[in-house]
Amino acid sequence: MNAKHSRRALGSERELAQGLAPAERRELGRRREELRRRLRATGGRGRKVRGLIELLKPYRGRTMLMFVALVAGTAASLAPAPLAKRAIDNGIVPGDVGALNVVVVAFVVSALIVWVTSWAQTYLTNWVGQRALQDLRLQIFSHLQSMPVGFYEKRPTGVLISRMTNDVEALNQMVTDSVTTLFQASLTLVGSIVILLLFDVQLALLTFLIFPVMAIGSLAFRLASADAFRRTRETIGALTANLQETLSGIRVVRSFAQEERHLHQFDVLNADNRAANQVTVNLNAAYFPSIELVNAVATVAILLYGGHQVLDGNVTVGVLVGFIAALNGFFDPISQLSQVYTTYQSGMAALDKIFELLDERPELTDAPDARELPRPLRGEIEFDHVTFAYRQGEGDGGPKLALDDVSLKVPPGQTVALVGETGAGKSTMAKLIARFYDPTDGRVLVDGHDLREVTSRSLRSQMGVVPQEGFLFSGTLRENIGFGRGAGELSDAELEDACRAVGAWGFIERLEHGLDTQIGERGVQLSAGQRQLVAFARALVADPRILVLDEATANVDLHTETIIEQGLRRLLAGRTALVIAHRLSTIRQAGRIVVLEHGRIVESGTHDELLDAQGRYWRLYRDWAEQAAA
Amino acid sequence: MATFRRLLGFLRPYRGGVALSAVLAGAAMAFTVLIPALTGRAIDHIRAGDSGALDRLGLAIAGAGVLRMALTVARRLVAGKVSLGVEQDLRQRLYEQYLALELAFFDRQQTGQLMSRATVDLQAVRFFLGYGLVLIMQNALTIVLAAVAMFLVDPLLAAVSLVPVPFVIVIAARYGRRARPAQQEVQQRIAELTASAEESIGGVRVVKAFAREDRQLERFAGATARVFSQSMVATRLSAFYQPAMGFLPQIGLAMVLLVGGRRVIDGHMTLGDFTAFYAYLLMLLVPMRSLGMSLGLAQRATASGARLFEILDRVPAISAPDEPVTLPDGGGRVELRDVTFTYAGAPEPALHDVSLDIDAGTTVALVGATGSGKTTLVALLGRLYDVDSGSVRIDGVDVRDLDPAVLRSQIAVVDDSPFLFSATVAENIAYGRADASREEVEQAARRAQAHDFILRLPDGYDTRVGERGLTLSGGQRQRVAIARALLADPRILVLDDATSAVDASTEQEIKQALREVMAGRTTFVIAHRLSTIALADEIVVVEDGRIAAQGPHEELLDVSPLYAEIVEKGLPDQVFLNRNDPEREVAGL
C-alpha cells in the first residue's frame, strides 16, 4: 500500500489524474457531463441549424442554384391565374384576338419555365441532400471508430447503427422534403395572397376568412393523425415481431403442438392492428372531404359576393374567374405546410441524437507524447500491481474490483494459461494487455514500456487477439485471413502456408473457390470449428509477438477437435501468449498456469507443480476428473 | 392474369361493401363534375345580369358540395372497412398456413424470406385491394365524367384540350414502373450500408485489435457512395418524369385559352362554358397522374400476389390422418423398423435402415459425431418429418396414424440452446399446458432446479424473458426448458445435448433434475459428456446414419472401438467449462 502511494507521489501529472480515487473521477465526469448538457440546452437550436449549414457548406454553389430555381419556378407556377384574368378581361370580353394570343404565349412560356426549374430543383435538392448526408454518415462512422472498446460495451449495437441509418434517413426526409416544401409552399401562399389582393381587396379579404379555418383544421388533423399513425406503426411492429418469433421458434411450437395458441395470439394482435388502422381511416374520412367542402363553400362565396360586385360594375368577370382559378394556390400550401410540421419534428429529433453521439469524446486516446513501441518486440508482459474496476454501466463489474493488485511477469515466448471461475478476472487481464481499458491503479508494461505511454497502433500491430467466437467479416476467406496485413500484401503461398500450419487448409482446399470463397451472410456458412481455424490463420498471418487468445468451447466433433488442438499449438509456438483456457490439453501444455479468484492471483505454476501443491488447481482438477468418471 | 383474378377473390366476402363504395364513389364524382358546370352557368348569369339566378346557382353549388362531402365520407368509411377486413383476412390466412406447413419447409426457407412475404408482399396486395382498386375506379370515373361533360358543352374544344390526358396517364404509369425498382435498389443499398456498419461495430474488437480502422472506413465509404449513386439514379428519374407530368396538362389549359377564347369571341361558346372548361382541366390534374401511378400498383400487387400464392397453395406435407387412431395407454415404447430418411435436397439419406427397439421407461444415450444422425432420429419420433421408408411406432401405433397434436403432446424436447418465447417465465414453463396452475408451474421449476434462480429474477415468475425481455444465461434457459418439459408430462423425453451449456456445479444440480424427469418415461439423451451418458441404461452409437453398436456402457467398451475412442478422447476434455461467462460476453473475447 505504501509503495503504491509513494509511486503515485512521484508519478507524472497524467499519472496523477489516472490515480485519482474512483469517487473523485466519477465526480469529475459527472460535472463534465452536466456542463455538456447545459451547453446543449441553451445552444440547442442554434447549434443544430449551424450544424446543418456546416454540412451544406461544401456545396454552397449548388445550394444557391437550387434556391434560385425554386424561387423562379414558384413564381412561374403562380402565373396561370392572373393570365386567365387577362385573357378574359383584355382578350375575350373586348374580342381582342391579338391580346389573347399574347396571353397564351405567356402561359406556355411560364409552363416551360416551371418545367425546367422544377427539373433543376429536384435534381439539385437531392444531389446536395444526399451528398451532405453521405458526409454525415462517414463522419459518424469515423467518430465511432475513434471510440474505445469500453464505449461499445455501454451501448447496444442497434442504437449505434440506427444513428447512421434511421436517423440520417429522417434527416434526409427533412432536408429534401420539408425544407423545399417549406419554402415552396410559403412562397406560393404569399404569392397567391398578393395576387388575390391585387385582383380585388374586398374579395381577397373575404377569401382570407378561410385561412384560420383551414390552418387550424389541418394542423389539428396532422397532430391527431400523427398519434394514430404511431399507433398503427406500433401494432404492425408487434405483429411482425410475433410472426418473427413464431417462425424462429417453429420447432418448439411443433414439438409442443401449440399451433392453436399462437393463432389465437396472432388473432388478437391482428385485431389490434385493425382497430388502430380504423382510427386513421376515420380521421381521413373526416378530413379530406371537409377540405373539399371548404373549397366548394369558398367558391360559392366568391361567386355570390363577387357576382353581385360584377353586376354592380365594381369588378370585372376576369377577376372573378381568376379568383376561382387562384383558390387552389391558396389551399394546397396550407395543407402541405401542416404536413411539414411532423417531418420537421422527427428530423430535428434525429439531429439531436446524432449530435449527441458526435459530441462524445473518446476517453482512451494516445497521449500527446506517446512513443512508438520498438519493432520487433521481445514480447515481455508485466502486470505491475494492477487494480481495475469497471465503472458503473461498463462491463459486468459494477463498483467491485475486477482485478485487485495483480502482479505477473511473463517472459518472452511463454504461454500462460489463465484459469478460474466466471468473473475471476481472466478476460479483464486480456483486455488490459490489449489496452482496451487503462488500469485504475498500477501499470501494464510490454517490454518495460507503460502502455499508456505508447501509441496504440504500434502496440496492436504487434499483438494478435483471437476471440472465442471467431468473428469473421463478410467477404472472401482471403480478405479475412489477410485482415491484419491487408489482403493485397500477401501472396497465395504465404496464405496457404499459414492455413496449413493451423490445419485450416484441409477444408479451404475442398471449397469450390478456395481462398476466394465468400463467407458470411451471403456466402458459405462455416462451422464453429472452421471459424476458429480461420481466426487462427488470421492471427498467424499477422505474426504478432504477443497473442491474446480466448479458447472456444463450442462442441465440435472429434476430428475437428484434434485439428484445432494442433493448430493452437502451432499458433502459440514462439510467442508470448495469454490464453483463457478451457481445454485440459491446452492447460497442460502451458508454460505457466495462473489461477485467478475474485480478481486475485491465487496460484501460479506448471500443471505438475500445481498438482503437487494440492491447492485450488488440484481441487478443480480433481472435481473434473471425478465428474468425467461418474 | 390468373393471379390477378385470384387476388380479386379475396374481395368476395366483401362484395356488398365493394359494390356500395363503387356506387358512392360514382355519385360523389357526379357532384364533383357538376360543380364546374354550375360555376360556368353562374358566370353566364352574371354576364346576363340575372342576380336571382346567380343566387339560386350559388345555393345549388353549396348543396352539391355538401352532398359530395356526405357521399365521400360514407365512401371512405365503407371502403376503409373493406380494406381493413381484407388485410386482416390475408394476414390470418398466411399465418395459418405457416403454422400448418411441415418443418421441412422451414429448413429450406430463410426466415427473412418468409417474413418478407408477410410484410412487403402482403402490404403490396392489401394496398392494391384496399385502396388501389378504389383509386383506379375513382380516377377513371372522374376523367370519363369530366370528358363527357366537356363533350356535351363543346366537342371540338373538348377534343383539343383533352389531347394531353392519355399521354400523362402513360407517362405516369411508366414512371411508376421505373421509379419503384430504382427506389427498391436504394433501399437495398441502404440495407447493405447497414450491414456494413453492423459488422464494423459488431467486430470492433477485432478491428481495433488488428488496428485496421482505416480499412473499415474505406469499406463504409464505398457503401455510402453506392447509396449516393443509386439515389441519384432515382432522382434523375423523378427529375425527368415529375416536371414532364406537370407540363403536359398545361398544354390543355393553353388550348382552352387559345381555342376556347376564340370560340367565345366568335360567339360559339359562352364565357361560362369557357370557365367551366378551364375548371375541368384543373380538376383533372390530379386524377391523370394518380391513375397512371395506380396502374403501377396493380402490377406490383400481381407480382406480390404470385409470391403469396406460392406459399398459400402449398399443401402441408404432414397433416392429421382422416381417422386418427387413439393412442393406447403405455409407457412410451419406441420401435423403429428399417427407417430410412433423407432431408429434402440432401444427396444422401441421413438415416439408413435403422431399426431400434426401446422398452418403455428406458433411458437411452445416443452417441456419435456431429452429423451422424442422432438429432434426426429423435425428430422422427414426434413426426416432425416423415420417413422415406420403414416406420416409427410409439406404444405399438405408427406415428402416421396418430393425430400429430396428440402425438407431440406425449413427446417433449429439451435441446442445446432452448428457445424461449417473449413471455413471462411462468408462461414459458406452462407453454405445453396453458391450463397449469401457478403451484404446478412452481412445482415443475423446483424439480428442474430452476425455482431458486427464478425467485432472484426482478419479477420472479412474472419476469419477461426472451428476445424482448431479460436475457437468461444458457444454463438458466436450459433449466426453464426442463421445467417446461416436466410440466408437459410426456411419455417420451428427448434431451439434446442438454447440459453442455452449464458449469460443473450447475451441472450437478441439473443432473439431479434430470433424474427426477426421467423417472417413469422413456428418455433419449444426445450427450457429449460421460457424466450424462452414465445416466443411461442403454447406449446407442450412431455412425453415418447407421446404428454402429448398442448396449450398456461396459459391454460397449469391449465390443465397439468407436465408442471406446469417443469415451477416451472425445468427451472428457472440457475442464472448467464455463460457456455462459458474462464477463467474456462483454469483452467479446
The largest sheet of chain B has its strands arranged as: 6-7-8-3-9-10
What value does the average pLDDT of chain B take?
A: 83
Low-confidence stretches of chain B: 572-589
Query: If helices are DSSP runs of H or I spanning 4 or more residues, what is the number of helices of chain A?
Result: 23
**Using only CA atoms, what is the Rg of chain B?**
36 Å
Measure the end-to-end span of chain A: 47 Å
| Strand-pairing-aware structural class of chain A | alpha/beta
Residues in β-strands, percent of chain B? 5-15%
Number of helices of chain B: 21
Oligomeric assembly: heterodimer
Largest sheet of chain B, described in full? 6 strands, mixed
Strand content of chain A: 5-15%
List the helices and strands and how they pair.
The complex is a heterodimer of chains A (630) and B (589).
Chain A: H1 2-10, H2 13-18, H3 22-56, H4 60-77, H5 80-92, H6 97-146, H7 149-154, H8 157-199, H9 201-208, H10 210-248, H11 250-255, H12 259-311, H13 317-359, E1 381-389, E2 401-410, E3 415-420, H14 426-433, E4 441-446, E5 449-450, H15 456-460, E6 463-466, E7 475-476, H16 477-481, H17 492-502, H18 505-510, E8 518-519, H19 528-542, E9 546-550, H20 558-572, E10 576-580, H21 584-589, E11 592-597, E12 600-605, H22 607-613, H23 616-629
Parallel strand pairs in A: 3-10, 3-11, 6-9, 9-10
Antiparallel strand pairs in A: 1-2, 1-4, 4-5, 7-8, 11-12
Chain B: H1 2-9, H2 15-48, H3 51-100, H4 103-108, H5 111-153, H6 155-161, H7 164-202, H8 204-209, H9 213-265, H10 271-312, E1 334-341, E2 351-358, E3 363-367, H11 374-381, E4 389-394, E5 397-398, H12 404-409, E6 411-414, H13 425-429, H14 438-447, H15 451-456, H16 474-488, E7 492-496, H17 504-518, E8 522-526, H18 530-533, E9 538-543, E10 546-551, H19 553-559, H20 561-570, H21 582-587
Parallel strand pairs in B: 3-8, 3-9, 6-7, 7-8
Antiparallel strand pairs in B: 1-2, 1-4, 4-5, 9-10
